[in-house]
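Q: Could you write out the predicted structure for this multi-component system? I'm mainly interested in how the pieces pack against one another.
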Amino acid sequence: MPKPSDLLQGTLDLLILKTIARKPLHGWGIAKRIQTLSGDTLSVGQGSLYPALHRLENQGWICAEWEESDLGRPAKVYSLTSEGRKQLERELRSWNRLSSAVHLLIQNA
Amino acid sequence: MRAIRIIRRRMHSFVHHSRAEWEMQREIEMHIQQLTREGLGAGMTEAEARTAALREFGSIEQIKDECRDTRRVRWMQDFVQDLRYGVRMLRESPGFTAVALLTLALGIGANTAIFSVVDAVLLRALPYPDPDQLVLMSNVPEKQPNALLGISYRDFTAYREHNQVFSEMAGNTFHNLTLTGAGEPSIVNTADVTPEIFSVLGAAPLAGRLLLPEDGKPGAAAVAVISEDLWRSRFGSDPNVVGHSINLDMRPFTVIGILPASFRYPDGAPHQDVWISVLQDPLFGPRASQPGVRLLGVIARLKPGVSVSKGQAEMGAMGTRFAQEYPEDTGFGIRLRPYREAVVGNLRFALLVLLTAVGLVLLMACANVANLLLSRATSRGREIAVRIALGATRTRILRQLLTESALLGGLGGLAGVCLAVCMIRILQPFLPPEVARIGSIQVGGPVLVFALALSLAASLAFGLAPALIATPSNLQANIKEGGERTGQRGGRHLRNILAIAEIALALMLLVGGGLLIRSFALVTSVNPGFDPERVIRAEVSLPQFEYRTPQQWRAFADELRTRLHAQTGFGECALAAPLPMDRQGQASFNFTIVGNPPLPPGKTNTANYATVSPDYFRVMRIPLLRGRFFSEHDSPSNPNVAIISQTLARVYFANEEPIGRQMRFGFPPNSDVMREIVGVVGDVRDVALSQEPGPAMYVPFSQAPLYGGEVVVRSSLNASSVAAGIRQAVYSIDKDLPVTDIESFPDAIGQSVSRERFRTLLLGSFSGIALALAAIGIFGVISYSASQRRHEIGIRVAMGAQRRDVLLLILGEGVKLALVGVAAGTGFAFLLTRWIASLLYNVSARDPLTFCSVTALLLGVVVIACYVPARRAMRVDPMVALRYQ
């Protein structure tokens, strides 16, 4: 059973799932991509990235293969499993609910 | 799907633990290289870039640890880690490990071995379907409610026809017949049965068929079922044996089937080779129709749902009715007993005594190991305190300690099972025959389970206490005080109590073992009244078909004696029936003394009876006290004579001269023959070594011949040439006569005390084990305490204490514990030994000599066990000891 995720952890999971949904990536690539795509606003520390990746892998949402990579040698490349894809949809829905709720609150308060 | 993936993943990370670690390491390493490369790109030097990367990455180990946590196989890895750690701890202190394992192996091994015997004898089901429905039925005379007699054939038939409680009933009796017709003549144990026996016991033939109801009718053809053993040994496993003819006592029987070797009825009795209808037996057949001949043992199967007491009620009522109807049944009742009880009844008590002893040994073993672990856990207090300070939880520490002791228990259990296998192999030859016959004893499934459960329970029992003491809540004090004092007060108390308990248990076992050993020594050193050394005995019995008359028996005996004397090296030989300690038992007859007033009605004088050749007393070295031995002149044509034993003379001719007096007695039907007493000889222990000799009377063989007898030869030749000589002598007279039961007399006597020897051996070795365990236990406690008191001893020596004072200090501590233990043990032993009083011969259950000598032995061993640590303490250098803490 996944642990009840607080906002931050839930967000990190969402970011990771979303990032590799387009294309399988290794850890370094995921960190870089999150940084780039968020316009350098979000930076994921290694201290939380790897435990999160391993946790998602152990929960069966993502799986990993050692593949030749752009780094010039085999790297551990993570991709979404079919269950992961469903999980991503769930996470997206809940994120949308949450962010629109927050948005509403900020606007109307 | 996902669940499967998760499980597979976790199995993977557990099984391929090192691979997962390696992958993680590589993944992180790559990330750091990537960071370094970025730094290089920004113009840093290689070293700078690497340092910056490492700094940015943060604590690698912490990240790894967090990743590991996500695998959720932590507990399994912890377990493996604890196990590895435990193995390392065990290897680091080989002395401790050896002692603990030895202790456990002894405790568990002895338990498993005895449990195997108990399992084979008491627990394993009798090899019949629904064995608890089987009952034995006997006639009981009202005047002797403990005498169980057989039932007459006519009554059996009536009971079988009219009862409502049994689904089937069968009768059996046993007879030795001479088998001829295939190979050498031999005596075969023959079961005379009614055909229903096979359906009562649910037997199926290996080949052919078993007896059918028609085979049991009067006038049926003579047919026989043979045992698998006989089929193999005698007929060479000939597949065509069914249909062959064999001769039993010179009468032809057709073999109709073979019984498998697994059919062992009657359990706990000699194996039967041939099964025939009781009506076909040469001896019993003609007498079966006579009323009042109670020859059949009856075994019956209760109908489902009928209890033994209900069966007893109905059969008892029928018995009462029969007693009124038939004059010969007057005064007889009916008794039912569960078959199982009849088979194991007399063994149960001895086995329970042994099981108790074994349980005590196991308790001691556990106390010992607990003590050892306790001492160690106490000295590991600091290590544990540091672990707790570093964040280990109390449960985690408990788990580690429990894993360690479970490891010890497991290894001990394994060693114990190995030991048990060896012990059973060693014990097998010492098993009393009735145990050995009941079933094969092996360390099989249930026994293994027992050993496993035992070692697990033991390891938990002794693992828990140290684990609780070693995890004290007051951390700070432990670290500050150097840890060694951790839980000392509680731990020391517990250890002392354990040591005292061990001493007490050991004393109880030693007293029990000591009493049995003393009793056994008394039994075996008892003078049997004759000299069995270098005497060989053998049995010759004459088939009654060929040798019908007393004249023939006498002629055979005379001829045999002549031929035996003619054998070279057979200096002395004689013939007798029966011999002392004969397996067939002793014959006992009523007698009256001519000239004495008649006895009041209902009172009789009885004495054991033997018919012997003239040389018998000389060969057996039975001393002549008065009068003369028999001679060749005491033939049928001369007056009948008798020799009486010392006891008979003392009891019945108190102040009179027995020589010249006359007695009336004899082997039925000649029970009223007048014989003149010509001599008095020494007493002989004829029933068993442990039984006081009773009155005995002897008659010359030629005046009271029997169909066969036993040969005794005193010779300096070796046993096998004597046996060959006896066979040759018999064979030269009649080549169809078998010679059986050839053995040396000392061996035969050994057989008669095999039961005593077995339990003495077992209880003796248990007391030995207990003594060793107690020594180990007190040694452990005192060594530990002495090492803890180094500081104190250092101060004492510095203050002027002599080495002797130190020695006495340490010894005193051990002896004090031992004395408390001895006091408690003596008390319990006093209460317990009366349970084994019935197993003792000529020794009181509270024999002061045994109590005193085992106490002295135990105290001596305690002093020796304490002397080793005391000597070490004596050598303490005060400077070193004071600096030590």
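A: Regarding packing and overall arrangement: Residues 18 and 88 of chain A are 7 Å apart (CA to CA).
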